[in-house]
Design goal:
By secondary structure, the chain is α/β, with parallel strands linked by helices. The chain has a domain of 315 residues: Up-down Bundle (ABC transporter transmembrane region fold). The protein has 21 helices and 10 strands. A 6-stranded mixed beta sheet has the order 6-7-8-3-9-10, with helices on both faces. It has a 4-stranded antiparallel beta sheet with strand order 2-1-4-5, covered by helices on one side. The longest helix is centred in the middle third of the chain and has 53 residues. The relative contact order is 0.08. Bound molecules: adenosine-5'-diphosphate and magnesium ion. The site of magnesium ion has 4 residues, from helix 11.
């Protein structure tokens, strides 16, 4: 185990997973950010204002308590009046009870306020994330996003419930103590006021450091959590490739670095607090010199009780510094968290959607010189043009990475082309709302996703209002009723998290049924059958034919007869269409496609059109995992 406190060093072995999202550069205690956060209290203005009143009352109550003690010493005690003393004590007791009561309500309201703010914040972020385009999710790790909704929102909750109002009370207390001191003796107050520039300088020196260290701590923690998330999700692969130790070492390095940064940050924070405290004591000592002089030397001499009172007030002026200093680092994390949340909420959508509208779709899809790159600098599709007439099936064929899925993604408006246009019934997809489009479209992909719930819920996903009978009919139309019936509880079987209690084939059938139930005009199947065994595939063949019948469809498949029956086969190579036509024509032409078919990889013989790379790597992986 390496020493977490050792000098920072870069981890030795580079790991592809070490890259992480760069954090937003937050100004510590940025006013705009605070106002943004504060805007979340607007719906609860009445509660917030009451809370602020309690804050103001409590800030005054604490210095007033010491003021009162001094008054009692100075008045009844110095004057020897025992009735006066009784009254003084009674007033003190009453004020003390009032102060506690204020604290109770102040805390209660702050707790409620924090809960309300975070509730709204989480809802807004979730809603915003749901609307984000796929591009956004390409750029942000799942762990990072979960961190926003979970820990950043939590930090903001603590910030509102604790730091914000505690600091406000502390600051208010300082202001009121200062005013009382200035009122009692402005010359002595000048001594205290001289401490302010020192505090300012300390703050100026430490703030950027603390803020930077805080960010580093947070970033390192982000890396720890994403590493953990990946380790859990990829446990099967890790165990299969005997990488447990490597992963553990890597995780160890990450927590070492996190611990180191944490200690460094706490060290700075501790130093800051100590210097603040030292500064306060130094000025209290100066006050003793100045006060002693006033009481002993100057004429008229200052009454000792006045001096005592002044000391009490000075104490109340400096005491909150500790609180403020302690809240400081928390405030810094809150600000950083708020900044990240604001950045997510203010991330513009990659494009604006037109309002949903009703539309009768015949299903003619045209790609008109479409070029596209996930990253603008690296185009993956070049000048793709073709027309899919209503009801036609377009098969996309080509090596891994040639752009088949990308074409499917563009047809489904998950991304917009960089150049050219995708047209549905002659209308640019840009001018159609995705909602309208997706209501007429069904998508089945290789890594299909099922949501935790029953089989029935999942089939009904695209049409929640569908009756049980309709759900069952969709399955019957696919001729797959007995597959569902064979499940432990039929339609009521729980599929488990992301469907992991079903076999791949069963999952795929649920996905086909989900698509069928929507009764779409357009169907996109991206390697929907690549992962299933030959036996299930035979079963799916019928289902597939029924799903595709009469609908415009894009099919990326390796070995199904679908390719032979397709109205057009588009052969892709590095983002360009290199051949097109029906299966028979292409075979006759004797080009790349014919070559693929001849080499025994074609749809005639069954397996894998143009997927030599994939086949090889799969075999290789399997061999290695057995090793
Ligand atoms: N989300 C993504 N972000 C960046 N690049 C991507 C993304 N998806 C695919 N690519 C790249 O685009 C190219 C085409 O990919 P794709 O259309 O998925 O190929 P395939 O023909 O195997 O379906 C590949 O070079 C791939 O690396
Ligand atoms: Mg693909």
């Amino acid at each position: 185990m390496s020493n977490p406190l050792a000098k920072p060093q870069r981890p030795a072995a580079a790991d592809p997973r070490d890259g992480h999202e760069s954090e937003v550069e937050a100004q510590p205690l940025d006013l705009g950010l605070m106002l943004w956060l504060f805007s979340f209290t607007r719906p609860y203005a009445a509660k917030r204002n009451t809370l602020l009143v309690f804050v103001a009352i409590r800030s005054a109550q604490l210095p007033l308590l010491s003021w009162l003690i001094a008054q009692v010493i100075n008045g009844p005690i110095a004057g020897g009046s025992s009735t006066g003393l009784m009254w003084g004590v009674a007033a003190y007791a009453a004020l003390a009870i009032a102060t506690q009561t204020t604290l109770h309500f102040r805390q209660r309201l702050a707790l409620e306020m924090g809960e309300l703010v975070v509730h709204d914040l989480r809802n807004q972020i979730f809603a915003h994330l749901q609307r984000m385009r796929l591009q956004f999710f390409d750029q942000h790790k799942v762990g990072w996003l979960i961190g926003r909704v979970a820990s950043d929102a939590e930090a903001v909750r603590l910030g509102v419930q604790d730091s914000l109002f505690t600091s406000l009370v502390a600051l208010g207390q300082m202001v009121i103590a200062a005013l009382l001191m200035a009122y009692c003796d402005w010359r002595l107050f000048c001594v205290i006021a001289a401490s302010l520039p020192v505090m300012w300088a300390l703050n100026r020196h430490f703030r950027p450091r603390l803020s930077q260290q805080h960010r580093a701590v947070h970033e390192s923690f982000s890396r720890v959590t994403s590493s953990l998330a990946e380790a859990v999700c990829g446990i099967q692969v890790t165990q299969a490739f005997v990488r447990e130790e490597h992963n553990a070492r890597r995780f160890g390095r990450l927590i070492d670095s996190h611990a180191r940064l944490n200690v460094a940050s706490m060290r700075t924070s501790g130093m800051f607090l100590q210097l603040l405290e030292c500064n306060a004591q130094w000025f209290i000592a100066l006050l003793l010199v100045a006060g002693g002089y006033r009481a002993l030397v100057s004429t008229p001499a200052m009454p000792v009780a006045d001096l005592i009172q002044f000391y009490f007030l000075a104490g109340f002026f400096f005491a909150p510094l500790q609180t403020v200093g302690e809240q400081y680092s928390q405030a810094m994390s809150v600000m950083a968290a708020a900044e990240r949340l604001r950045a997510v909420l203010q991330t513009e959508l990659a494009w604006q959607e037109p309002a949903p509208h009703s539309l009768v779709v015949s299903g003619r899809i045209e790609f008109d010189r479409v070029s596209f790159g996930y990253d603008a600098a690296r185009p993956v599709l070049h000048e793709i043009s073709f027309v899919a007439e209503p009801g036609q099936t377009i098969a996309l064929v080509g090596a891994t990475g040639s752009g088949k899925s990308t074409i499917a993604n563009l047809a489904a408006k998950f991304y917009l082309p960089t150049a050219g246009a995708v047209l549905l019934d002659g209308r640019d997809l840009c001018s159609l709302s995705s909602e309208t489009l997706h209501q007429r479209m069904a998508l089945v992909v290789q890594q299909n996703f099922l949501f935790a719930g029953t089989v029935r819920d999942n089939i009904r996903f695209g049409r929640p209002e569908a009756s049980d009978a309709e759900v069952e009919e969709a399955v019957a139309r696919l001729d797959c009723s007995e597959v569902i019936a064979a499940l432990p509880e039929g339609f009521d079987t729980q599929v488990g998290e992301s469907g992991n209690r079903l076999s791949l084939g069963q999952k795929q059938i649920v996905c086909f049924a989900r698509a069928m139930l929507v009764d779409p005009r357009i169907v996109v199947l991206d390697e929907a059958t690549s992962n299933v065994d030959v036996f299930t595939e035979a079963k799916l063949k019928v289902a597939l034919a029924r799903l595709l019948a009469g609908r415009t469809s894009f099919v990326v498949a390796h070995r199904l007869s679908t390719i032979r029956d397709a109205d057009q086969v588009l052969v892709l190579d590095q983002g360009r269409i290199v051949e097109r036509g029906r299966h028979a024509e292409l075979v006759q032409r004797g080009g790349i496609y014919a070559e693929l078919c001849r080499s025994g990889n074609g749809p005639h013989s069954g397996p894998y059109v143009g997927s030599a790379v994939r086949t090889n790597s799969t075999t290789e992986d399997a061999t290695r995992s057995r090793a």
